[in-house]
Amino acid sequence: APVNLDITAVGADADGTVTKVEVYANGSLLATDTSAPYAATWTNAPVGSHSLTTKAYDNLGATRVTPAIAVVVNALPTVAYTAPADGAVITLGQAVTLSADASDSNGTVSKVDFLADGALVASDATAPYSASWTPGTAKAYSLTARATDNLGGTATTAARSLIVNALPTVTLTAPTNGLLVHTPATIDLAATAADSDGTIAR
Question: At 152, phi and psi to the nearest 5?
Fold first, then answer.
């Protein structure tokens, strides 16, 4: 929901013609069509379980009603990411808690899936919906959460970013280990440093 539900029917008469077909939703007349193919559109069909029938009329006034068919119009669940914050930065190897709020107005939430770059990384079938995940690569991830309700309807959050940072490496190259100096002295300090997924700030 919201949905415009297309309804079609076929009609025939062995000794005459079909003059019209009426479409009923929950016992109330929805539309009438006087020519084949017989069709109607139920605009903004409401959420819930509905019974659809059609009634055909022939040129001599005889009628026949079809057996009812059941249609369920489902309201999609709602879902909102609660953690981590958009743009959060963690260290490679660190676990991060993924969490979301989800609800369903006409049923229940079956599960919430947590996705990173579109790939499933964790699921939780019980509120409050959360999971722990340890990313395996230093990079910026696009995170989404997807809720599924008891009728199979799904809703997905807007994406948020998570930056996984690899720590820099640093080596002290001067002075040498155990250097002996006499005061007063000036000692030169030197180091090499690198960062696999960025730059050295200082």
Answer: 90, 0
